[in-house]
Design goal:
Elements: H1 5-30, H2 39-48
Length: 66
Amino acid sequence: MGADVTQRQQTYRQYLLDARGRALEEALFRSPAKALGSGEFLANLYRSGGRATARRVGRPRAPGSV
């Protein structure tokens, strides 16, 4: 992680901060709370979270039923 103690500490500190940021980001996208904003903002938000559109609320329909 580094050639000396100081460099290893800095690298490890950055590693922890990056992991904390990823955990926070994941928690925000898995939260049951709804985001507020314009349609364009929400579309970008869902796209960045790995979803192109908002998911429908409720149980998925059975295959073949309309």
